[in-house]
Amino acid sequence: MPGANSVTSNQETIHKDLEKVVRKYARTTFLRPIADHTREAFAEAETFVEKFYGKNGDPGTASGVTNAIRDGAPGANAETEPRAVILDSGCGTGESTIHIARRYPNIPVIGIDKSGMRLTKAGNPAQTAGENVPPNAFWIRAELLDFWRLALERVQAGEWTIPYHAVYYPNPWPKQSEATRRFHMHPIFPTLLSLGETIELRTNWEIYAREFAEAARIATKELYRFPALRFEDDKVEINKGDSRSRAGMTITCESFDPENPETAFERKYKDAGQKLWRVVVALPQ
């Protein structure tokens, strides 16, 4: 892998049009036709999820993840409750998928990337440290934006719940002219926010992290009409709202130093001495 160059950009702070663009897309629906190959890939992922739970007989619980089954909600059972599914979006060679799958062994983890070449390296011995690939790890080649929309259909239908969604080191599109290609300034952003209980973005560009956090604050307020938002330092706390409000959501943006890097990019950036950033958009557990 080439040397770890830091992000260079003609943008020195949060994009001047961020709020306008985020509010616009929070009020619209992304209607681009979904590609057939992604529908086929999604069907493969669904099959993996069904087979995983058919074999394990559990709708998905793990340390740090809550759902109605574990909490003993009235009427909760494996037939009626949503299947817990974790997404690793833009997984590249799939190393992060393995780390996440080991963290949550009772939940299927779907690694998604559009590059077939990168995915051919998924699960190689260098990633597994000589151990077997976790049985809950699965990789699929698909267009992320389409996959997310199909996954949201399953969430809204009560078939899936996504307790954790990893979005590690996406292309930052650092030129100001490319800003609307960033996830948080794209029409897909409301879908991304609606998918999971916890979304974790990681990046080596501080501006991208701060934009993502601010975009999440703006879009959440627009989507759920929160009467009160508190935004102090690097943390947003949302404490009030109606039944749709996702009350208690937090948005954190912080630098971090991973002891054990989970992707090749993360390892490369850390070894080069670059500061890494993460944003976590989370519902209370």
Provide the β-strand percentage band: 15-25%
- Report the CATH C-level class: Alpha Beta
Helix residue percentage:
25-40%
Regarding quaternary structure, what we see is single chain
* Spans where pLDDT lies below 50 across 5 or more residues: 63-77, 226-233, 236-245
- CATH architecture label: 3-Layer(aba) Sandwich
What's the number of extended β-strand segments? 11
Q: Main sheet, how many strands, which sense, barrel? A: 9 strands, mixed
How do the strands and helices of this protein lay out in sequence?
Elements: H1 18-26, H2 36-56, H3 68-71, E1 83-84, E2 86-89, H4 95-103, E3 109-113, H5 116-119, H6 125-128, E4 137-141, H7 144-156, E5 160-161, E6 165-168, H8 189-195, E7 198-203, H9 206-224, E8 230-232, E9 235-237, E10 250-256, H10 264-271, E11 276-282
Parallel strand pairs: 1-5, 2-3, 2-6, 3-4, 6-7
Antiparallel strand pairs: 7-11, 8-9, 9-10, 10-11
Characterize the structure shown.
This protein has one domain: Rossmann fold, CATH 3.40.50.150. Helix content is 34%, strand content 17%. The chain is built from ten helices and eleven strands. It has helices spanning 18-26, 36-56, 68-71, 95-103, 116-119, 125-128, 144-156, 189-195, 206-224, 264-271, and strands at 83-84, 86-89, 109-113, 137-141, 160-161, 165-168, 198-203, 230-232, 235-237, 250-256, 276-282. Strand 8 and strand 9 (235-237) form a beta hairpin. Helix 7 packs across helix 8 (189-195). The longest helix is centred in the first third of the chain and has 21 residues, at 36-56.
Quickly describe the structure.
The protein is of the alpha/beta class and 285 residues long. Helix content is 34%, strand content 17%.
